[in-house]
Design brief:
11 strands, alpha/beta, single chain, Arc Repressor Mutant, subunit A, binds iron/sulfur cluster, TIM Barrel, three-stranded antiparallel β-sheet, 2 domains
Length: about 300
C-alpha cells in the first residue's frame, strides 16, 4: 500500500498542506472526468478497497505530531474521498488532535453532499471544496462522466442543502475544458447557481496537467472573460504557467477600481492581468485606502470595501 499521508506540500490556494489519501492503492471514484490527472477508470458507486480506520487515524495523528506547523490538513483521495465509508468516524477521531491554527479541508466532487451521513462528516471540516464543471446536464455528463445513478439535479440540490447548514468556508472549483463545458450558457448557469449559495471563493481553472482523456485547456484571456460572469464573487484564477501568456493590460486608477469592484482580484493573479504601471497604481490605491487586502480562505485578494 502506498503512503496514506503525504507532504507537507505548498498549495498556492491553501498554504502549507499535509495531505491524506483515503484511497492510497488505486483510483476509486464515482466520476470519470475527462481532465482527471489520474488514469481513466470506469466510475464506481462505492469503494471496493476500504482503508482500515484505525491504521488511518494512527497514520494521520503520527504525521500531525511531526508537522504541527502546517496551514491545512487536506483530506483527499485517488478518487472521491466521500466514498470512504468511515469519513465521519475518522474526522470525529482526529478533530481534537488537529493543532490550533490548522484548518481541515476536504476536496470533493460534490456528488454526495445531499446525503445525511456525508453532511455530518463535512460539517466537521473548516473548509469544504467541491467541483462544479457543469450546471447543464449535457456539459456535466460530457466533462465529469459520473456513475450512471448520479443525476445533476440531485447533485445541485445536495450542494444547496448542505450550504444551508454548513458554518465553515465553502469553496467551489470550476474547471473548463475547451469545447466541452466552455459554452456561455453553461458558465452562466454555474455562476447563477453559485450566487444562490453562500460561497466563500471560486477557484476557476482549466486543464493544466496531463489529462486521462482528450481534454484541452482554454487560454488565459478566455478564462479571464469567463471570470466576469462570476461578478461579486471572490474568483481565483490559476497562477501563470509557462505556456500561458500574461494579459498585462494597462488601466487607469478609475478603471482598475471599477474592475476590482466588479471582481476582486487575487494578489497572485494581478501580475498576469495588469501591467507594471497598473500594479503601481494598485499599490497607491492601497495606501490611500481606496483598495484593501482581504484574506479569503488562505488567499489574499485586492478588494473594495463592501
Ligand atoms: S472527481 Fe476527481 S478523482 Fe474523480 S475522476 Fe474527477 S478529477 Fe478524477
Amino acid at each position: 500500500m502506498k503512503n496514506i499521508v503525504f507532504g507537507p506540500v505548498i498549495s498556492r490556494r491553501f498554504g502549507l498542506s499535509l495531505g491524506v489519501d483515503l484511497s492510497p492503492s488505486f483510483k476509486q471514484c464515482n466520476f470519470d472526468c475527462l481532465y482527471c490527472e489520474l488514469e481513466g477508470k470506469k466510475a464506481q458507486a462505492k469503494m471496493t478497497e476500504i482503508l482500515d480506520l484505525q491504521i488511518l487515524i494512527e497514520s494521520v495523528l503520527q504525521s500531525l505530531r511531526k508537522n504541527p506547523k502546517i496551514d491545512v490538513l487536506t483530506i483527499t483521495a485517488n478518487g472521491e474521498p466521500t466514498l470512504y465509508p468511515y469519513l465521519f468516524e475518522f474526522m470525529e477521531a482526529i478533530k481534537p488532535y488537529v493543532p490550533k491554527g490548522v484548518s481541515t479541508l476536504i476536496l470533493s466532487n460534490g456528488s454526495r453532499f445531499g446525503e445525511e451521513k456525508i453532511q455530518r462528516a463535512l460539517c466537521l471540516f473548516d473548509i469544504v471544496k467541491f467541483s462544479l464543471d457543469g450546471a447543464l446536464e449535457k456539459n456535466f455528463l460530457r466533462v465529469d462522466r459520473p456513475y450512471r445513478e448520479i443525476l445533476l439535479e440531485n447533485l445541485l440540490r445536495g450542494i444547496e442543502d448542505f450550504a444551508r447548514i454548513y458554518k465553515g468556508k465553502l469553496v467551489a472549483e470550476v474547471l473548463i475544458v475547451e469545447g466541452v463545458n466552455d459554452a456561455i450558457e453553461n458558465i452562466k448557469s454555474i455562476a447563477k447557481f453559485l450566487k444562490r449559495i453562500a460561497i466563500s471563493r471560486v477557484d476557476l481553472g482549466t486543464v493544466d496537467r496531463p489529462p486521462a482523456y482528450k481534454a484541452a485547456a482554454i487560454d488565459y484571456q478566455k478564462l479571464a472573460d469567463i471570470a466576469k460572469e462570476f461578478d461579486g464573487m471572490y474568483v481565483n484564477l490559476p497562477h501563470r504557467k509557462k505556456d500561458m501568456s500574461a494579459i498585462g493590460a494597462a488601466y487607469s486608477a478609475e478603471d482598475v477600481m471599477e474592475f476590482i469592484a466588479r471582481r476582486p482580484v487575487s494578489v497572485l493573479e494581478a501580475p498576469i492581468l495588469f501591467d507594471k504601471k497598473t500594479l503601481n497604481i494598485i499599490e497607491e490605491l492601497l495606501k490611500e485606502k481606496k483598495l484593501f487586502l482581504k484574506k479569503v480562505v488562505n488567499l489574499e485578494f485586492y478588494t473594495i470595501k463592501r
